[in-house]
Write a structure and sequence with these properties.
40% of the residues lie in helices and 14% in strands. It has 273 residues and is of the alpha/beta class. Strands 1, 2, 3, 4, 5, 6, 7 and 8 form an eight-stranded parallel beta sheet that branches. Helix 1 runs parallel beside helix 2, helix 4 packs parallel to helix 5 and helix 5 packs across helix 6. The longest helix is centred in the middle third of the chain and has 24 residues. The chain is globular and about 50 Å long.
Length: 273
């Protein structure tokens, strides 16, 4: 039997993200969330997490959005707000001073949460920890805080009828799979565990119930594997409709459990491993 984890990234980033997570857990479909510890709504997210002790939590390590927790001038503007992107970090991963500041900031973000809630996993905003040198830092901190799992990004390419896959997402998928090949060796070095597959890269910004189901059908020939599906759900107080509200709707489709069972999956999370 394969395992399926539906995870909400960006937990704590906004009030709308937090409400979506609370309602997703309440429906019984959302099983995990990735917590942004450098965000304005972190405390609200902690209250929600403590209300639902069965929710599996990751730290969503973040050095690309919001304000830093430490003095890391190589990552931020003069006001302490992150101002670098994935490509910058990929091209500058040999800069030892930069990497040291990333390590200090990551440590502060993890430390802020571990005394308040149980953390089962580490991942990152825009997959920044997939960069090999940063992945090594992430694994080292996972061992330091006795966190057993670190997300990797191996997603099988698949296609959904009447839906065009964006070229940028395909390129991102290929890059992340190549990096994952090297990062698995780092995981083994630190004796850590990871998900076997990921859903949510090929259709970034376009996730809905059809993309989830088609992605899972692509896994029909695997056995005893763990598939983590990442979404970015929001629930707004008004009638705003966008990709985030569509992703929130995934968490409300209760017959998803029936579909999972029919396709050799059980709904679980890293807390249950």
């Amino acid at each position: 039997m394969n395992k399926f984890i539906l995870n909400a990234d960006d937990f704590g980033l906004s009030e709308e993200n937090n409400q979506a997570v609370a309602d997703g857990i309440d429906s019984g479909i959302l099983t995990g969330a990735s917590l942004c510890t450098n965000s304005e709504y972190f405390s609200q997210a902690i209250k929600i997490a403590n209300t639902f002790p069965n929710l599996s939590l990751a730290i969503h390590l973040n050095i690309v959005e919001g304000k830093s927790l430490t003095d890391c001038n190589l990552l931020t503007d003069k006001n302490g707000y992150f101002n670098k992107n994935y490509l910058y970090f990929l091209l500058n991963q040999t800069n030892k001073k930069l990497i040291k500041q990333i390590e200090i900031e990551f440590n502060a973000q993890i430390q802020k949460a571990v005394n308040l809630v149980k953390i089962d996993n580490l991942d990152s905003h825009v997959h920044i920890h997939s960069i090999p040198v940063i992945f090594d830092i992430t694994c080292c901190l996972a061992k330091k805080y006795n966190i057993k799992f670190v997300r990797t990004q191996r997603e099988k390419i698949y296609f959904v009828k009447k839906r065009k896959t964006k070229i940028i997402n395909l390129i991102k998928n290929i890059l992340l799979k190549i990096l994952t090949f090297y990062n698995i060796k780092t995981l083994n070095k630190y004796n850590l565990k990871t998900n076997d597959y990921l859903l949510g890269v090929c259709y970034t910004g376009e996730m809905d119930i059809d993309t989830v189901k088609q992605g899972l059908k692509k896994m029909q020939n695997v056995e005893n594997k763990t598939v983590e599906c990442l979404i970015h759900p929001c629930k707004y107080k008004n009638d705003i409709q966008n990709s985030h509200t569509i992703e929130f709707e995934i968490t409300q489709i209760r017959n998803l459990k029936k579909f999972l069972s029919e396709n050799n999956f059980i709904l679980t999370n890293f807390q249950n491993f």
